């Protein structure tokens, strides 16, 4: 008769050590991100060096490279810290549809960090930062469309839909940032969603006949 195999659990000390290590790692990442953001308010992103980050934070070089490949990898981690866009159910043309709330995700996060965003996108390095943001948005929107079966992201038509949506979002977002946030994040999100998700075009008060 086979004897039951007893369940094995890691020693409590190992669990606690693992949790402490995870907390230390998180604190280190947050410390480096905070330092990079503070420096970005003082100078162009291209002028920030890894050595300067280490000198300001006291983090060892080996520790930095245990977490990040380079300072661009640290920048990407900053986007990750915002989280991912949520989905919501909307009534669109009489149908209940699952919508990726990526506009709220982008505009609300930008409003919370307006000074930092203005600094980043007024600098000569804005192209590098914008490329990372665009890539993150493309991945999020492409995956959402794939899950919802809206279109195949591996066919030309699917990629056109994804890039048109992301291009419109980034274009409006850049206008908003470069014009010093002329309206609230909620207002611009609602205007974007009415057009891009619901297809509601403004008529400027002129009756259509």
UniProtKB/TrEMBL annotation:
Residues in the DNA-binding region annotation: 49-68
UniProt entry tagged with the keyword DNA-binding: yes
Keyword DNA-binding: yes
Domain HTH tetR-type, first and last residues per copy: 26-86
Signal peptide start and end residues: none
SUPFAM superfamilies in UniProt: Homeodomain-like (SSF46689)
Keyword annotations: DNA-binding
PANTHER family the UniProt entry points to: ACREF/ENVCD OPERON REPRESSOR-RELATED, ACREF_ENVCD OPERON REPRESSOR-RELATED
Protein name: TetR/AcrR family transcriptional regulator
Native organism: Pseudomonas aestuarii
Lineage: Bacteria, Pseudomonadati, Pseudomonadota, Gammaproteobacteria, Pseudomonadales
């Amino acid at each position: 008769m086979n004897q039951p195999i007893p369940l094995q659990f890691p020693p409590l000390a190992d669990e606690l050590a693992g949790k402490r290590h995870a907390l230390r790692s998180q604190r280190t990442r947050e410390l480096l991100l905070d330092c990079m953001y503070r420096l970005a308010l003082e100078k162009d992103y291209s002028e920030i060096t890894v050595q300067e980050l280490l000198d300001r934070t006291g983090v060892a070089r080996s520790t930095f490279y245990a977490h990040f490949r380079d300072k661009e990898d640290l920048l990407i981690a900053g986007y990750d810290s915002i989280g991912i866009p949520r989905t919501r159910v909307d009534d669109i043309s009489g149908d209940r549809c699952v919508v990726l709330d990526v506009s709220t995700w982008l505009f609300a996060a930008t409003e919370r960090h307006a000074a930092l965003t203005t600094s980043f996108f007024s600098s000569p390095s804005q192209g590098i930062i914008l490329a990372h943001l665009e890539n993150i948005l493309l991945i999020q929107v492409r995956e959402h469309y794939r899950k919802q079966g809206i279109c195949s992201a591996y066919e030309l038509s699917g990629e056109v839909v994804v890039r048109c949506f992301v291009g419109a979002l980034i274009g409006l977002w850049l206008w908003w940032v470069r014009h010093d946030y002329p309206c609230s994040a909620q207002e611009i999100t609602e205007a974007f969603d009415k057009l891009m998700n619901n297809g509601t075009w403004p008529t400027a008060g002129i009756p259509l006949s």
